[in-house]
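Hi,

I'm pasting everything inline rather than attaching a file, because the server keeps stripping attachments. The sequence lines come first, and each chain or strand is labelled.
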Amino acid sequence: MTRVLLRLFLRSRAVYLVALTLGLEIPTYLESRNALGHNWASTLEVANGSAVILVILGAVGACALTISWRRHSLATAGLPRRAMLYPLLPGLLVAGAVLGAHLVWVAFVMLAQAASTTGPFEWLPLAPPAAAIVAGSLIGNATGQYVRSWIAPPLLGLALYIALINLSGGTYGNLITVGGIDAALDGIHLDPQVALAQTMWFATVAATATLLTVLRPLVDTARLLFVMAVPALALLTAASALAVVDAGVGRFVLTDVNWTCLGDQPTFCVPAHETATLQGELPRLVEAHNRWDAIPAAQAPDTYWGRLDLPVPGHQAEFTFNPSMTDHELVRALIEATYPCSMEWTYEQYMTSDALAEALTTQPLADTAATGATTERADVGSLRC
Amino acid sequence: MLTRISSVGYRAHDLRARRVPGFIGGCLLILALTLTAPPRAPVLFQDITADPWRTLWALPACFVAGCLDPSHDYMEQALPRPLWTRRATTLAVCVTVATMTVLVSAALLRKEATGALTGLFLMIAMCLLLATQLSPAVAGVTVFTFILANWIFGLDEITLQAHPWALLMSQANPALLMAASAILLVGTAVWSHRGSAR
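And the predicted assembly:
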């Protein structure tokens, strides 16, 4: 049986998709590699980074293979009837090739990063991309069953890409987003509720595509039954999509983070695994705070919290730092931390904060305090929320 | 002659030239897309936008795959006109139609056609090579993947310059257009004369 499947796999040319899959995995990995080695949530996101494009690849590949197979249908029409699942073979072979190559790639990334990655490991983030790749391949298979033209595969791929661009980032983003983050996901992990809803959604899409493929002969023999089945499948898929939308926008939730706080007036708090880095940078951070606090109108906070990728309730001033930042950048980071609306600043406001940080870094601290920093006070006014 | 072919069980729509209307339809669809697409479109995974015009005009290369199917050979060798002229004519018509639609789109949108034609010819040449050596399905999927990879990963996010491998995103170059045309011409001649490898 294994030999038969292997021969089928090789002769169907689905095996070429393994090379294309790896060709699409590598660039995403290279672009997101700065997020590797922090925790398993980030590492798995990077490993799954290309999954969205692999869905398109699977759809295009399965559609092309199905059309290729259907061209032999005239020659095989007189042979005994095959199993009902026979039309699904191109989709399943492509899904096997793309998903298999993707899982091997994920395993490679995990093994390569195992030594430096911390935190709890979860299998759940692997489920939505796997289901999505299978669903994409079966969509391509179904399309190939209904549209025989060779122009169908690229047009299907183009349609999926346009849908991807229009849906990503919005309310319906979770219907298509299955991985790809280039930031360290400190203190957060994939929301299990969202992951399960996504997996169910992709499984429903796969089941719908499967039924549409299997029911293809009904178009000629029992059209009324087919016409009744299509709305039922559409309703089932829509209900599954609603479950994903109801699970909320965004895919991540906060985990329990152990915070370490250093310093007294001001106090800097970071996740426990960054304690050593904070200890090394504490003198520079205190100096940056003092420079910023020298402007009376600044109302610099007493406690700064390390910024996570999700807002933490109760953390007013969230900052980002790393040892490679210059003194000027540290001051700017604390200015931004002071104003919760800094993420929505306009370009002009951002440039104002940058100029202010530059001025505070270069002029002696005593001068800022003595003059009352009239210029800086005016600048601070334009940064308020 | 068509009657004789029909009598042995083949359908007229299996003939190679019958794939050309599909190709023309695909080109017209891309033409409509280029006229309605925004001048700057978001690029997946990157916080940048890029002009999709040139990349869209590489897609007709995927549509050529149908005309390159070697199974047409068995049907067409029973016809009176030599097989090599059928192959050459079909591909020449496809390339001419695609070139004309690119030029129309370029004239309507006042864009430089050199880059789009270079990408189109290179992709058709790649499709021709893969379809004749492997299979039309492999050719179509590989060319589509190459186009997708060019669009998504072809531009450097910081400098916004094209990577050296991203031929479809690089600056228009008349010398490259000449080279692409020559490759396509030689490829067409070789394929018309020798047919597919399998």
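The first helix of chain B runs from residue 2 to 7.

If the labels don't parse on your end, tell me and I'll reformat.
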